[in-house]
Structures are given as structure tokens and as C-alpha cells.
Amino acid sequence: MKIKKSLAISETGFVFDPSTGDSYTLNPIGLEIIQLLREGKSSGEITGAVTQTYDIDAMTFERYLFDFLGMLKQMQLVESDE
Prior knowledge:
This protein is an alpha+beta fold and 82 residues long. The chain has helices at residues 28-38, 43-53, 58-74, and strands at 2-3, 8-9, 14-17, 22-25, 78-79.
């Protein structure tokens, strides 16, 4: 999954989609996930990075990550990998 290249993302977690005019605010973990996705990291790599940094087990985080990625798809903030 790749984040749309056209998105403007600030260091504070403000996201602007110029194609729709919509804006969003991310919490620090959401921002970290977006940055890791932009770097081309896989879900497994993201899980590893976040669980090493924060006090959360991999199984619990993977559920949150699945939901977060689903929201990104629903809001059309990602491009297909094809």
C-alpha cells in the first residue's frame, strides 16, 4: 500500500488532500505509520517498528493497523500497489 504522492503532510500530523480539499489530523502513531508507508515499509515492518517504540503487543497493534489502513483506503488516501 502506498500513500498518495499528492498528499501534503506536516510534521505535526496535519494532512491535506489537494485532489478533494479534505484535511485530516493524525496522532503521533498515525503520523509514524504514514511516514513508514511512505518509506515503502510492509505491515510487518511497521508492526515491528511500532511495537519496539511503544508499549503494545504485536497482536493488538496489528488489529489497530488493519483498521487504520482500512480508513486510509476508505478516505482514498492510498494508491494501489499495482
